[in-house]
Amino acid sequence: MKATVWAGRNSVEVQSVPDPKILNDRDAIVQVTSTAICGSDLHIYDGYIPTVKHGDILGHEFMGEVVEVGKGVTNLKAGDRVVVPFPIACGACWACENELYSLCENSNPNAGIPEKLMGHSPAGLFGYSHMLGGFAGGQAEYARVPFADVGPLKIDDDLTDEQVLFLSDILPTGYMGAEMCGIQPGDIVAVWGAGPVGLFAIISAYLLGASKVIAIDRVPYRLALAAEKGAIPVNFGEQSVLETLRDITAGRGPDHCIDAVGMEARNGSTVVDAYDRVKQAARLETERPHALREAVLSCRNGGTISVIGVYGGLMDKFPIGAVMNRSLTIKTGQCHVQRYMRPLLERIRNGEIDPTFLITHRLSLEEAPHGYEIFKHKQDNCTKVVLKP
């Protein structure tokens, strides 16, 4: 089969690789009908995620048709159409029983690696390094899905792939980012990053009762899209974010701040930007945490910081004094996708959310390298790339 594989920093290739096979009774093989390039994939593309190897199949946002199931999978059959969540979860451990699916205690066969870096291991993830299981991703013609009796969401109606594909990751992630804020009616929410996850966080914040949502980015077409969804756009390349947020909130600061950027944040200040970029390039820190620093400093006293942007290791100059002295609450996590898939599917069916507005580019699988390039460099107003194997 054909698959998108990592070929070194800033390089992916579409290669012929062996077809996946059933390895466990709870496996399924899915023929991929739609898959997408995620902002998290760019961290791999840029070479910042450790334990990624040449030839690893990328991609964690995918859906398709079941073509084979192991004998332990009784809830699916060949021909079923499914969306696959990006965390792999067993459904039976303490974490899964408490709906913390991205922390599954049984799905990462390489748990010893993240234990050394993080203290404990999170769940295995599709297409996201050997540290997180070494599982082949879904930017391919076929994918093996472990614990298929737990993860995949069966789509029984005539909703299109594009309407439901993002249930695999970015829609639940944006929603969880807003939910973790504990939004009360009338609250003001600021979102760092107007990419796909940030845009879904904006929509979700309004669904949960926010009175104002502020979108912070520097890319004009992304800010324009955020404004279309009701957000107040703030261009950090042209405005002081802290001063602008104080002005919008009468000096208090937003009630809640969502970091939808993660480890490769940029800054309007060339000095701060250069500092983080040099330290990250020299591997003296693994993150460029400017967005998170700014969120902490911007949030009102007693407010909430919700972190859904991906971080991988260690950061420098984190303002822990502000967190402690100003009674800020930080909530974080890889999304527990399985918890949100069905409720969000109902919102899509009811017309409350139309995820398709994000899609700007529809490409064949063979065009994946081009898709990565335009997505990374924000060319041709690229917001979201969907690949059709």
UniProtKB/TrEMBL annotation:
GO terms for molecular function: oxidoreductase activity; zinc ion binding. The chain crosses the membrane at residues 189-208. Residues 196-267 form the Alcohol dehydrogenase-like C-terminal domain. Its cofactor is Zn(2+). The keyword Acyltransferase does not apply. The keyword Oxidoreductase applies. Keywords: Membrane, Metal-binding, Oxidoreductase, Transmembrane, Transmembrane helix, Zinc. CDD domains: FDH_like_1. Residues 25-153 form the Alcohol dehydrogenase-like N-terminal domain. PROSITE patterns: ADH_ZINC. It comes from the Bacteria. Belongs to the zinc-containing alcohol dehydrogenase family. PANTHER family: DEHYDROGENASE, ZINC-CONTAINING, PUTATIVE (AFU_ORTHOLOGUE AFUA_2G02810)-RELATED, ZINC-TYPE ALCOHOL DEHYDROGENASE-LIKE. This is S-(Hydroxymethyl)glutathione dehydrogenase (Glutathione-dependent formaldehyde dehydrogenase) (Fdh) [Blastococcus saxobsidens DD2].
